[in-house]
Specification:
homodimer; 96 residues; mainly alpha; 434 Repressor (Amino-terminal Domain); DNA-binding
DNA sequence: CTTACATTTGCCAAAATTTGACAAGTCAAA
DNA sequence: TTTGACTTGTCAAATTTTGGCAAATGTAAG
């Protein structure tokens, strides 16, 4: 599946010697779900990012960025003209 | 709602003096749906872009790019760090 | 004002997708 | 061969998206 966000939170979790079993309940899910999230098979709800950032003592902004990049990547994968579309989007948001 | 894709196909349709009633059946939908698509309340299925490009004598690549940009824009709107996430995605796809 | 016709809007149920929960599975260490 | 961490598969529930219809709106003509 491939997920930068998932890889990152797994690294963070492991570096703090936390088990899925310990983290999952704080996000109100079971270990199976969190495992899938770390492997990129499921998405964490964006509202849960701040909670996870706190639990993992991570920078919330970093996780939000990784999370969003994963979503975008998933959307555009296999799409033609993806790079051009991205450029145009970048312009659009700068105009806001 | 705001949709570059919708605005574009409406312009194309009108410039050729076609009615929703004439175009919608070619996409196997009713006028209400196509109206919503042009106004950005609904999304055209990406598989239908080539059909529409042909009907409207438009450049398929142009429509695909507009369509994808709309999808991305919808995904990232109101998200923090959107520009940073986009940058990172651009890098990712160049590595493929 | 009435008709005609293009478009829009609102609503609801059907279809599709995502999610949550659980059970069973793998794997490594002891 | 037992234990504990993690993974995988399945299935129904929940959520989101879609399709279709009917009624509303807008506009131009008669």
């Amino acid at each position: 599946m491939e997920s930068k966000f998932g890889e990152r939170i797994r690294t963070l979790r492991e570096s703090q010697n936390l088990y899925l079993r310990q983290v999952a309940p704080l996000l109100e899910m079971d270990t199976a779900q969190l495992s899938k999230i770390e492997k990129g098979f499921r998405q964490l709800k964006k509202e849960q990012i701040p909670i996870l950032a706190k639990v993992l003592k991570a920078d919330q902004k970093e996780l939000q960025t990784l999370w969003l990049a994963d979503q975008v990547l998933d959307l555009i994968k296999d799409q033609p003209n993806a790079d051009e579309a991205l450029k145009s989007v970048s312009k659009s948001i700068k105009k806001k």
